[in-house]
């Protein structure tokens, strides 16, 4: 059975073996930085620079030190708070706006949609200066609100959700109206469950985007306690000297949860990229 | 009959605006307003510390044009685009074509190539720095083993930009692959079959069917990649954190220079002017994409 199938495959494409080999070689190159990060994080300090591929005396001491001696847990918590709140906010407001723009008739609808869409063209770099001036004027510097406020809604999400909301049948909403469902209920209980896959993709990307965000957090955060994970790790050498063992352990601790989430949600994430990439 | 209907319409419009109230406030106060205020700041001498902020017209733009560091940042940014985009696209397309050839483990390979795209890039930058290290990096270890001279990589003004670009290509390769795979899957099989009947194969199939029919995907990929490369900041800053912009500003980008001007030297006027230049560049590329892509694809 097995050998018969293999023969069949070979006959169909004689170069398939070569394709597998090339792809595997590429994978080794792509995965090497991850491997190096984890392998180094497992090495004791005096073996850091021996460049052996496999640690001879693997230890979890570096991880323990990062978790107890540095502010890493605090930064991790900050990132979790910031990414969670922005994701909930984006999911709620973007889906609400997307629903209103797709399903309700009212004067000014087209204008509002174009206005929101136009903000997609503005690069973040252009906004950070006014945001900073605004934040200093209102005392938002170095606060959670200061880190989060620019990301609480996303024009891209509105655009995405509106596309999917257009596919929700009007009959469904009309039936709800006849049953006496409130206008908010029509959105929340009838339309929203229909677009769950799109909403899930938006949530994943918003969370990842905010988890990895760097430019604005770097500007608005001033104290070591308020740092998000990327800012904390970027400024880590000041925190831990140039201890590469601690830098590698904290990098690994920052990367591994993201990769774990990626492994679980891999299909949705990659399909989400196709979905969103091709629609934009 | 028409009166209650009108009322119903008014009622719905009221609801619509109730739902939109907070979001509209957000888009006006946090997006559109600041965009205009950035343009306003770019026309003023705006030092955060000094209280007087006089109108200076286009002087900030003239200062930038004469500022060798800004000119270098702009040239570097263009170099990142010219180096990064072709390599990234060629590799992405090659891997996508290979993935199309195989039957098993396609999802696994795709996922492995995609990993860097979701990785916190600040953490990845540390590892890359180490890999490039002159005295204790694995790359130089390999060079030494095969008897080649050691390379300074990030410490050499001529090499640093390419070293950083390699890391960015590593980061975005998986994204390109996924986009190309979707594009390839959208090409109807019958064209290949028809061409094979006519005796075409290999390179000619690729040249005359894949490339023309993949055109919208290629355009999207160029535009997306270019916008990403024009906004390079995090990767560049973190690859040489202690020496922002690399040796002799060899890796400096426009956005990194904006950060230095605005938030280290507090020259907000010039920084805002630089972002206006960036905005015009990105807008131009986006409009170009819309024009190219709105042409219908002829199968």
From TrEMBL, chain A:
GO cellular component: plasma membrane
UniProt keywords, alphabetically: Cell membrane, Membrane, Transmembrane, Transmembrane helix, Transport
Localization per record: Cell membrane
Protein name, per record: Carbohydrate ABC transporter permease
Membrane topology: Multi-pass membrane protein
GO biological process, one term: transmembrane transport
Gene3D superfamilies attached to this UniProt entry: MetI-like
Coarse class of the protein's main subcellular location: membrane
Domain ABC transmembrane type-1: from-to ranges: 76-265
Source organism superkingdom: Bacteria
Pfam families: BPD_transp_1
Transmembrane segments: 20-38, 80-102, 111-133, 139-161, 199-224, 244-265
The family this protein is said to belong to: Belongs to the binding-protein-dependent transport system permease family.
UniProtKB/TrEMBL annotation, chain B:
Stretches that traverse the bilayer: 12-30, 78-99, 111-131, 160-184, 213-233, 271-290
Compartment list: Cell membrane
Keyword Membrane: yes
Domain ABC transmembrane type-1: 74-289
One cellular-component annotation, GO: plasma membrane
Record's keyword terms, sorted: Cell membrane, Membrane, Transmembrane, Transmembrane helix, Transport
Signal peptide annotation: none
Primary site of residence: membrane
Keyword Ligase: no
Membrane topology: Multi-pass membrane protein
Annotated InterPro entries: ABC_transporter_permease (IPR051393), MetI-like (IPR000515), MetI-like_sf (IPR035906)
GO BP terms, alphabetized: transmembrane transport
Pfam families associated with the record: BPD_transp_1
Family recorded in the similarity comment: Belongs to the binding-protein-dependent transport system permease family.
Name the record gives this protein: Sugar ABC transporter permease
Organism from which the protein derives: Candidatus Segetimicrobium genomatis
